[in-house]
Structures are given as structure tokens and as C-alpha cells.
Sequence to fold (401 residues):
Amino acid sequence: MNGKEVILGVTGGIAAYKSAELVRLLMEDDILVKVAMTKSATKFVTPLTFEALSGESVIHDMFGQEGTAIDHIQWGQESDLIIIAPATANFIGKMAHGIGDDFLSTCVLAATAKILVCPSMNTRMFENPAVQENLDLLKKRGFIIMEPGQGALACGTEGPGRLPEPDEILQQARKLLSDQDLSGLKILITAGPTTEPIDPVRYISNRSSGKMGYALARAATLRGADVILVSGPTDLNPPPGLNFCQVITAEDMRRSVFENRSGCDIIIKAAAVSDYRPRDHAAQKIKKGPESLSLELVKNPDILTELGSTIEEFPAVLVGFAAETEDLVANAEKKLKSKNLDMIVANDVSSKDAGFETDTNRVKIIYSDGRVDDSPLMTKDKVADLVLDRAKAIREAGLEG
Ligand code: PMT
Fold:
């Protein structure tokens, strides 16, 4: 999100303290954050808190010394997004009826940026027809309204009215700040390891954390695609806004992939599927016994090979990953050909900063026409965008040809 600018408008509600966390999260995403507060918001949290977190002056007085005379015009026209969080019933009313009586409300009136409104108030206030009609008016005018969370509120009531969690607001902001260039595409992504049971307490698996596959799923969702994430067991939370299918074994993953493949435009297999599984799965825990114990393994189905051999029935751009510890390009090229792929993303998993478990990856992308793209060490989020760019280009070239 480097280079993006967000104005965070904080209005006077108890949830204003959560906006401090939102500033931190936005900044972690390399977003420049400028904060404007209403006078009542400063009663809940001081401008100094936001100044310290954002590193920028906070404007809370139209006629104060913090900014210039035309900041209220420039801020909303030069930024990419305005987030009003928390948005009180009073401020929602002002926005709906064109009232500009302080810095933030005049900034909203003059804004050309998208505006995300995150209501937060007592349940009775939120359900009041006046507030609901004001929200409807704003929706009609193109404001994006987040549904408030449900639960126990600071005022002692239960119901809708909680400010959505900062992380949910961040996800929505990321989406609004991203180009929707994958909108209309259905993309199936696999992630994580598969685990193959030996008995009720033991299994065979591998070191995949799911980070690479989840980064792909998150990026594709933010870019507007309709995403199905088929994931083996991981410690990660599924990114919001996609269809999530939890699987355990390679057989489960195969079933889920084939159930969901119809209508997919792009399929990306980042999962590390166990090539073998124990022939027998003991019903009870295997007891300690002789000095050595042999485990007979049988081959698992190769999901990607099956997809590649039936691609004409279900046309989609087919992308594999290759986890290699030697002869990276030569081994990946063999997989590209034998599995009938459009491209393969090869990573050297013996490296400390790439492959399994890391937040970064270094990949070579190999295409079916023999071209090889070499990329430097990048975050898995950036690798994900690169892989999606390339898969999209292959799809577009296929449609033209
Ligand atoms: O999850 P992380 O910790 O972030 O790590 C990321 C990663 C290293 C797992 C990922 O970048 C990666 O390389 N994924 C593929 C791992 C792998 O299984 O590679 P492979 O070379 O064994 O398999 C080649 C391709 O065939 C893969 O797309 C794999 O999903 C697919 N395959 C393999 C075996 C099998 N039985 N069925 C398959 O579909």
C-alpha cells in the first residue's frame, strides 16, 4: 500500500480509543495517515496520542494553528480514502445533510476521495429511523458504510453498535485502496500442508505454514476476485471476504479442489501436498514395542497432474509451485511440462529467507514457452501480487489469441 494516503476522521464516541490501533495498523501497511478530530473526540482521546502514532499534525480546530487555511479542502482531495471511525449518529447526520461546521465536516463536504463510514453508537440510537435514513442517504451518494459489530456496548446494552474491530476496518480500507483488476474472476488457491494420519495422535506432514497461499488468497480478494481458498491445517486465520474450505489430507484436498474447480478462471496450487500417506491408519494409538518399526507408505493422488490432464474440460490458467532444494529451474521445468501447467513458481526451500515458514520468498517464474522471470527477495504479499499479475496476463493473452 506504499504511497497511499488516508485521512482518519475521529468523532466523539467511546470507541475513539480503538482508532489509535487503526492508525498503527494502517501505518504498518506503509500508508500515510493524517488524523482530523472533532471537538468531542478530543474529550475521549487527546490529539497528542494520534500525533505520536502517525507522526503528523492532528487537526481538531478549524481556526487553530495546526494546519493551513485550505487544509480542509486539500486533505479530502489529495488523499485516496477518508475513514470516519468512530462515526457518531450526530456526525452521520451532518454528513447526510451537508452540514459543515468544523474541520472534519467541511473536509468531507469538499472531498473527492472515497469515504468509508464506521458507525459506532448505542443500539437504540443506531436503530433509530433517523440514523438509518441518514445512512441510506449516504449509501445512495456512494459512501461505503461498514456494518457495526454486535455485542455488549460500553453503555450496558447489547446489540448492533460496536465499532468494527480495527483489523476489519483495515481489510476494508485495503480493498478500497486496491485496483479491482481481478473483479469478475473466480480464483481457486490451495495453501498449507496436508497431514496424513498414522494413528489418532500421529501424522506425516511438512513444514508449510500456509503463509504463501494465504498471501495469494488475500491479494486476490483485495483485487476484487471471487476467491476459494482450500487450506490444509495451519495456524493462520482465513482472510476475510473469501470462501474457505478446510481440509486435512491430500485426499480431502483433491475432493475439495475438484468440487470447486468448475467455472474457475485461474487455479494456483501453493499447497505442499504430502506425496505419500501411510497405507494403514491405526484406529488406536500404536504402542511402544520393538526396537524398529516400519511404516508402509502409498502414493497420494497428484492433484495438479489430474487438473492439468483434464484442463480442456475445465479451461483455467493453471499455476503450480515447485519446492526445490537443488537444480531449481531444471526440476521446476520438468514439473511444468509433466503437469501441463501455464506457469510454475519455483522457490528454493533450502534458503533461510525463502520457501517454508518465512514472511519473504525469492522465486523464479517459469512459463510454458520457456521464459524465466527472476525476482529478488520480496515479502510473500509482494510475490502474491506478482504471481497474480502474471497469471492475469496469461489469461488475457489466451482470450486475445
Ligand atoms: O506455506 P509456506 O510456509 O508459506 O511455504 C510456501 C511453500 C514453500 C509451501 C510454497 O511456496 C510452495 O513451494 N508450494 C509447493 C510445495 C510443493 O509441494 O511443491 P512440489 O514441488 O512437491 O509440488 C509441485 C506442485 O504440485 C505444487 O503446486 C503442489 O501443490 C502440487 N502437488 C504436489 C503433490 C501432489 N500430490 N499433488 C499436488 O497437487
